[in-house]
Amino acid sequence: MVERTDAARNRAAIIEAARQLVTEPGELKLSAVAKRAGVGQGTLYRHFATRDELVRALYDGEIDELVGLAHALVGAYPPREALRRWFTQLAAYARVKFGVMAAVEASVWQDIAAQTPGKLGEAVNALLAAGRDAGDVRADVDSRDVILLSWFLAHVEDHEWAERTPRLLEVLLDGLTAH
C-alpha cells in the first residue's frame, strides 16, 4: 500500500512540475520536470515513458478540473457568478494549454485536442443551462459559441495578461447575459 501512495504522490508531483515548467519559456525537458518534482529520471519514466505522455496527462487533468469545477460552481453560486469564476479558471488554464501546445508536435496536439470539445462542451452546457433557468443567460448561445469566443485567450500577450484578460472576460460575460 505504501508503494501505491508513493507512486500516486510522485505522479502528482511530476504533473505539477510539468504544469509549472510548461508555462516558462523554452522547451519542456523531462530532466527539468524530474528535478522540479524532486524525483529521479527512472521514477519519471516509470510514470511517463515520453514527454508526449506527460503532456497528455497534464492536459487531460486540466480539462477534467475545468469540467468538475463547472458542476461545482453551478451548485454553489448564482449563474452569473458561476460563469465568472469558471471563466477566471479557464483563463488560468489557458496559460497551461498554450504551453502544452508549444511542447508537443502538431500531430500529437491534434490527437490530444480532439477530445476537448466534448468535455468542455459538457461543462459549458451545465453553466449555460443554470444561467438560462435563472433568466441570466441568452437562449441563443450554445457551448460551441462560448468555446470559440474564449479562444481570444490565445492571443493575449504575457505583458498585457494581468490587465487585459479580466476586462475581456467581463466583455464575454456581458455578451452572454440576457437583456
Low-confidence runs of at least 5 consecutive residues: none
- Tally of contiguous helical segments: 9
State the secondary-structure class.
Answer: mainly alpha
* CATH topology name of the largest domain: Tetracycline Repressor, domain 2
Mean pLDDT: 84
- Please tally the β strands and state the result: 0
List the secondary-structure elements in sequence, H or E. HHHHHHHHH
What is the CATH-assigned architecture of the largest domain? Orthogonal Bundle
Euclidean distance between termini CA atoms: 56 Å
Tally of structural domains: 2
Overall helicity: over 70%
Gyration radius, in Å? 18 Å
Could you walk me through the main structural features you see in this protein, from its secondary elements to its overall organization?
It holds the Pfam family TetR_N. It comes from Mycobacterium adipatum. The structure is a single chain. The longest helix is centred in the middle third of the chain and has 26 residues. Helix content is 77%, strand content 0%. The chain folds into two domains: 49 residues, Arc Repressor Mutant, subunit A (Orthogonal Bundle), CATH 1.10.10; 125 residues, Tetracycline Repressor, domain 2 (Orthogonal Bundle). It is mainly α. Helix 5 packs antiparallel against helix 7.
